[in-house]
Amino acid sequence: MLNKLKEIANNSEKWLSQAGSIDEINELRVKVLGRKGEITQVLRGLKDLNAEERAGVGKIANELKEKLEDMISSRTQDIKGQELELQLARESVDISLPGLPLQRGGKHPLTLINEEIRDIFLTMGFSVAEGPEIESDYYNFEALNIPRDHPAREMQDSFYISEDILLRTHTSPVQVRTMEKIAPQIPVKIIVPGKVYRRDDDATHSPMFTQVEGLVIDKRITFGHLKGTLMLFAHKIFGEDVKVRYRPSFFPFTEPSAEMDISCVNCKGAGCRVCSHTGWLEILGAGMVDPRVLQYGGYDGEQVTGFAFGMGVERIAMLKYGINDLRLFFDNDKRFLRQF
User: Fold this and answer.
1) What is the pTM of this model?
2) pLDDT-based confidence at 28, cuts 50/70/90?
3) From CA 61, how far away is CA 204, in angstroms rounded?
4) CATH level 3 topology of 109-337
């Protein structure tokens, strides 16, 4: 048996030195150390030896087994290292080659218009205010002079979460929240950009859209201040040659109220399909803040006055960029978005 163990040792060392792959090493492991391997067979034959021979042969066999396990493990690591080097050599990259160009993204057209509107009013001394999109009935309607039985509520078909909680239908609630927060401090001069929600969905309406609200409160604020502010805004965003007009309208939270139109950006006022051959396009609503709304906000309507306005950002973007379908803003079509 000692000669057999010596033969196993010599053959195994020779095999390991010549092995060129993990599979060949595994084949040797099974052949020599497996359940039916050569050393295993030697160990099973120890029962046929006397006690003295059994102890000597058993010791040598176990030592050889441990030695071979160490040699196999070491050779396995060597071959893995060689295979990794070959793989890296095959997959090497020429770093001197130019890389693949990365396509640059851009801002969404609504973001561009939002930022442009914000910047125009910031230069006029306005600050930006924000408020919750999930609003209470009080701030969304009642504090804006629209009680529960007021027919004006039907102008804004709403998404109600409960009887008194809804998704805000306009950014006007932030007016009252801001007034409550800083009253009786003056002046108040804010714009309120943000998302609003109404149950509309067609080529010119969306269940979710973006508004920018404006509010100014101070002593001796007049409709002339309103007209001057909005005219400057129209000239800044549509060009100095655009004309502006105001038409009487109705909003529960302003009195008097007006719609503001600009001369058609497509036909320059001559009349076309875009403006229904009128030469004018409506862009926003505005008016003097109703004294009741001032009172809800904590101001005395006998001491201060103010004006407010609100516009749809999508409406401004459609006119500025010549877009005829509101839904294009929300389709995420790269062919459309790349134009901006």
Assistant:
1) 0.68
2) confident
3) 89
4) BirA Bifunctional Protein; domain 2 (3.30.930)
